[in-house]
Design goal:
Blueprint: H1 2-7, H2 10-29, H3 43-54, H4 64-67, H5 70-85, H6 87-97, H7 104-113, H8 122-152, H9 154-169, H10 190-205, H11 207-214, H12 222-246, H13 258-271, H14 287-299, H15 312-326, E1 333-334, E2 337-338, H16 341-368, H17 373-384, H18 399-414, H19 416-423, H20 429-432
Antiparallel strand pairs: 1-2
Helix pairs in contact: 2-3, 2-5, 2-7, 3-5, 3-18, 5-9, 8-9, 8-10, 8-11, 9-10, 10-11, 10-13, 11-12, 12-13, 12-14, 14-17, 15-16, 16-17, 16-18, 17-18
């Protein structure tokens, strides 16, 4: 028993915790009470849906609105909330409610879950995460309820407002509009577009950044400044590409007035940051647009938030590392600060691991699924980035395809390095510090 406890590192506890939550959610979705036909989902479909909810992805094999009862939808909503904020965050919440002291082991788990470099102030950060999350979701619920009450009535508007606010802030992309339509009916609605967009952008920035912004400091940390700069630049770049490429496309932006074209382009660019909602018919997009969206989905959101992907900070670290190599500069410099070597190594490890995963899963699905390569590539990248956008093949995936996407969503949510740490054995400290003789190999 002691040996098992000794081997349960924070990374392993985190992976095991997410797996248990997914399994419980899947079992609940197989119950007759969960579906409108009172048959329950098959276990594989339930596992896919639960994984998509906990990993805040939004890919669905069955339509959420027409398949599930209120019980089933509430199960999905709770899984989204736990998955977005992390099960350790909720465990801490219950511990604080019960007046329990947060132990060092629990602080280490929180550090791993929130992707922080130290345990200092981790409980305070966890409290901030909970307050920020519930506040944003409450405000989003209120505004969306007021917007939708004339369409649906107060009761349904409140329910829809709550569901979509939680789904948006946690970057999940689940919706209740029916027929896999997402938010296409509201393509020109500024209230729905802006509220949903602000919710998922806020959740994707990372809780450390949100806490930094809300603290009203005169000087933000380097991390906050870089996250805001890169996130803004990527959203703007995506908006321009979509607007230019799809401007005259009769299946997407073509029939829309100019203001709606801009709004739809902005929303569709921002949603690639792992949100999963769409206001345009994705299947009608040109391949060039889809390729640019794949790149944005792969980069994803920012560390310590509710989004996926390799993260914005990883992307900028890689880009600056390449630039430094071109300039024969041994140091990677960012706004007057040198990034440590271990940060650059981790950035490269995350990116290469992610590329390898996407390539392997793409190879499997290109063989098992009856779809063109671009459609499969889009699906796999969406799953890894926990985005949830799809060109329509998710419901038709084979059993092998579903299992492959389940694995991709799981790794995408936890991060490829977390899983690598779980599978690897600890090296002896003395062996880890041995420096062997240098010898060069040819590169390039």
């Amino acid at each position: 028993m002691d040996a098992i406890e000794k081997n349960m590192t924070p990374s392993r506890v985190l992976v095991l915790g997410f797996a248990v939550v997914i399994l419980v959610g899947a079992l609940l979705l197989t119950l007759p009470q969960a579906t409108q036909d009172e048959m329950g989902l098959s276990f594989l479909n339930a596992l896919f849906t639960a994984t998509s909810a906990v990993c805040v992805t939004g890919l669905v094999v069955v339509d959420t609105a027409t398949t599930f009862t209120h019980f089933g939808q509430w199960v999905i909503l709770i899984l989204i909330q736990i998955g977005g904020l992390g099960f350790m965050t909720f465990a801490t919440l219950f511990a604080m409610i019960l007046g329990k002291k947060i132990t060092l082991k629990e602080r280490l788990l929180l550090q791993e879950a929130l992707n922080q470099v130290s345990v200092e102030g981790i409980v305070r950060l966890t409290k901030s995460v909970l307050v920020i999350s519930f506040a944003f979701e409450a405000i989003g619920t209120l505004i969306l309820t007021l917007r939708w009450y004339s369409d649906f009535g107060w009761s349904k508007a409140l329910y829809y407002g709550l569901f979509h606010s939680v789904s948006a802030f946690n970057n999940a992309g689940f919706d209740l509009m029916g027929n896999f339509s997402s938010l296409t009916a509201f393509v020109g609605d500024p209230v729905v577009n802006l509220v949903i967009m602000l919710l998922f952008i806020s959740g994707g920035l990372g809780f450390l950044v949100m806490a930094d912004l809300l603290a009203h400091r005169k000087k933000f940390s380097l991390h906050t400044k870089i996250v805001l700069l890169v996130s803004g630049a990527l959203i703007l770049l995506g908006t321009v590409i979509i607007l230019i490429m799809e401007f005259a496309n009769p299946d997407t932006l073509g029939p829309l007035p100019i203001k709606t074209k801009v709004l739809a382009s902005l929303f569709q660019s921002a949603t690639t940051r792992t949100a999963g909602f769409n206001t345009l018919n994705l299947a009608g997009l040109y391949d060039t647009t889809l390729l640019s969206m794949i790149v944005l989905m792969f980069i994803g959101a920012s560390p310590g938030g509710t989004g996926g992907g390799i993260k914005t900070t990883t992307f900028i670290a890689i880009a600056l590392s390449v630039l430094s190599t071109y300039r024969s500069n041994p140091y990677v410099v960012l706004q007057g600060r040198t990034l440590p070597k271990d940060v650059i190594q981790k950035a490269w490890a995350v990116t290469t691991s992610a590329l390898f995963l996407v390539f392997v899963i793409l190879s499997i699905l290109s063989h098992t699924e009856n779809s063109d390569l671009m459609t499969v590539f889009f699906e796999v990248t969406s799953a890894f980035g926990t985005v949830g956008l799809s060109l329509g093949i998710t419901p038709t995936l084979s059993e092998v395809g579903k299992m492959a996407i389940i694995l991709t969503m799981f790794i995408g949510r936890l991060g490829p390095l977390t899983l690598a740490f779980v599978l690897s054995q600890k090296r002896d400290k003395q062996e880890a510090h041995i420096k062997y003789p240098d010898e060069r190999i040819m590169i390039g």
